[in-house]
Inverse folding.
């Protein structure tokens, strides 16, 4: 227990932390300490830390705080962070908090809440600085000296708008340093401005930033009005989330799971996919069941079943992973399917020959039966080619259906390779051995 | 064929493209057109496009160009891009090009080439602007107006160094706009500077940027001297590469494969892992072989083999994917293994019961044999728990061995789930049915 006389020091120490580190402390602190910190830290410092949390951690971290203090802290957040947090919590509670906030704070937050969270509008900030074309550089400098919150604003660009708030140009901050003080804004501004539509998908936004290396981009509504800005650091987080999502969706996860996700949430998201997978596994099992007589006649076949299905699955995953990621990063466009398919089938054929021969020889030598070897080798070869083909067709097919190409794609793929592997191997065996 | 009289227009049009788009054109253009463009485009425009390529595409894109032009273009590249490109090509060729460059260009490139490519030193740029503490703000402005290449430098910070080039502070560019012209640099600079060690791992660097949202960070050598800067956009690419690498390493890819990778390269990287996987698949097959008599007695067992092994593999992949990604993003530290293990085993147990019961009932109803159902259900349950356990232990184990936690982890995991699945199921069956 911290002695009460030590509290100022304890608060003081935490107030000096970087918001990211303070956020981390808050997540790990025992309830009493957490509430003490959030109550006694200066409001803007506590809010800066809360802004660094994942949206879904806000309720957990503010649990037990007096309602007025929660409202106060939400009111202190940058509007876009407040909107992100409020977007995650239950509607009733959200309305409650918005009601309690002063109108000049709740109005811009509600404005931002209108945009879907995975669009440019959903990730943009409404803090930006506008200039007008006829101002002089020195006037701008003078005005900004008073206007800018130096602690908070990491400015790279200033935006030039007309009387209707329509974007007409951009002035990189460096121009305010280097341009002659008497020059006009319109003389130093860049007129051919890259911008984002407010409803652009965040994955496409991330691609723009990655390709062109912007520090920030303006966001326009359909009338050409400047409604916000997206910064590189915001997009950086988005890109990391998208990469995580791709990895997770492939294997039947929600795309938002972290190891810190409470286990009941993890369970409710994972189990449905496991049932889907179970259903597909039984499709493969039915194939085996159809050939029960063949296995009854030659039990050694069972040995190769898992090898042929499993190896096909792994080869297919190599293809699938490359294709899913390249689609996400824009290295592959939907029109590139044919080229990708050609390359992967070529690889599948060569890999299939290389692996099929080995499997065939092992089958022959192990069981002393060249026919088993031949059947296993050929089935292995064919399954590798099928794996390569479906490793391309599944993600491109999902994309064509406007579904995320990653979604459950590995579950679909292993279904194909299991079914095809079993069918090819046992089917060939049934035919060959029936004729012997 | 383009008419020769049209050439200036053709060149002119391409010269106006953004370097990223020009690079894309060069990659897709037929040889003749590509060479024409690279020969006749203004040197700095051609070089800007080349700087946007992946390092390993440089040789392909400059193939057929006269040697002097290649040297000229390399000399025009930012030093860090030149170093990245030269780092990728064969040593002999690299020495040749470095020889051909003037000393004042080759010296800084060779300096950058000394740093491993996946460290802060390997990704940093050597273009940065330094100030001294005693200068006034207006002196700085004056000097910078002449010094800065406005086309090229996207400056966010200026670095304050002492006579030994040791970093003593940072001045955000905005301070040069907002500070009073007569103030001294030392009065406006930030003294408590975040910096990177030159040998810091690039994954850790990406984490810093993501957590703290920097636009750029200075890089210091072990004497505290400023040797370079890393920008957010550079790190953004690194983070995307690291995410791709994690996805790819898990399934037995090199971590650097794209769909545009030439097929012989893909083949040489994928096939070895397929052989590794084949070897592990045969370990699982040997387990099956040990129980050939049991299968001979009850061929229906073969049906459930693939289900139990496959389902375990998929459940384990869910766990593995969360753990690998969280380790990469720093959400999990090596010390968090116990907590993660506890959660995943809990999930594995509950999922195992939920899936095991279904498998058991299907086994019973399908085969009309409650004992087969019971054996299949129990084996399924146990394999799910094993999958969860190894989904945590494999990446944490690799990490402890200082190996990338993603490396071949899915191959290792499916080996475990295949072997354990087969052994549990057939072993239990052998015991139970021997006693009946």
């Amino acid at each position: 227990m911290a002695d009460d006389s030590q509290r100022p020091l304890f608060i003081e120490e935490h107030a000096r932390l970087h918001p990211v580190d303070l956020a981390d402390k808050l997540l790990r602190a025992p309830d009493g300490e957490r509430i003490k910190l959030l109550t006694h830290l200066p409001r803007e410092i506590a809010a800066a830390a809360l802004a660094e949390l994942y949206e879904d951690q806000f309720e957990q971290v503010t649990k037990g705080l007096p309602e007025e203090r929660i409202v106060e802290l939400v009111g202190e957040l940058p509007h876009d962070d407040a909107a992100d947090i409020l977007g995650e919590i239950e509607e009733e509670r959200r309305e409650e908090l918005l009601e309690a906030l002063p109108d000049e704070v709740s109005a811009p937050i509600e404005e931002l809440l209108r945009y879907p969270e995975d669009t440019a509008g959903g990730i943009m900030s409404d803090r930006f600085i506008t200039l007008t074309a006829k101002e002089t550089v020195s006037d701008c400098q003078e005005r900004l000296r008073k206007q800018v919150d130096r602690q908070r604003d990491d400015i790279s660009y200033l935006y030039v708008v007309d009387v209707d708030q329509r974007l007409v140009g951009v002035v990189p901050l460096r121009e305010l340093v280097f341009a002659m003080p008497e020059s006009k804004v319109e003389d130093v501004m860049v007129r051919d401005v890259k911008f984002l539509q407010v409803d652009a998908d965040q994955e496409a936004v991330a691609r723009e930033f990655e390709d062109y290396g912007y520090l920030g981009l303006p966001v326009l509504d359909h009338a050409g009005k400047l409604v916000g800005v997206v910064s590189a650091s915001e997009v950086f987080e988005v890109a990391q989330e998208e990469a995580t999502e791709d990895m997770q969706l492939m294997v039947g996860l929600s795309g938002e799971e972290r190891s810190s996700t409470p286990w009941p949430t993890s369970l409710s998201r994972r189990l449905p996919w496991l049932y889907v997978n179970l259903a597909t596994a039984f499709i493969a099992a039915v194939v085996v069941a159809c050939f029960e007589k063949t296995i009854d006649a030659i039990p050694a076949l069972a040995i190769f079943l898992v090898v042929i299905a499993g190896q096909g699955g792994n080869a297919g995953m190599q293809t699938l992973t490359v294709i899913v990621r390249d689609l996400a990063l824009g290295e592959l466009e939907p029109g590139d399917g044919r080229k990708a398919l050609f390359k992967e089938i070529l690889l599948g054929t060569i890999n299939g020959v290389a692996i099929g021969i080995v499997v065939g020889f092992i089958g022959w030598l192990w069981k002393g039966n060249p026919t088993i070897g031949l059947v296993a080798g050929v089935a292995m070869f064919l399954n590798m080619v099928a794996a390569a083909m479906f490793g391309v067709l599944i993600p491109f097919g999902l994309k064509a259906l406007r579904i995320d190409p990653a979604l459950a794609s590995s579950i679909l793929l292993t279904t194909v390779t299991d079914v095809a592997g079993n069918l090819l191997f046992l089917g060939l065996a049934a035919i060959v051995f029936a004729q012997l």
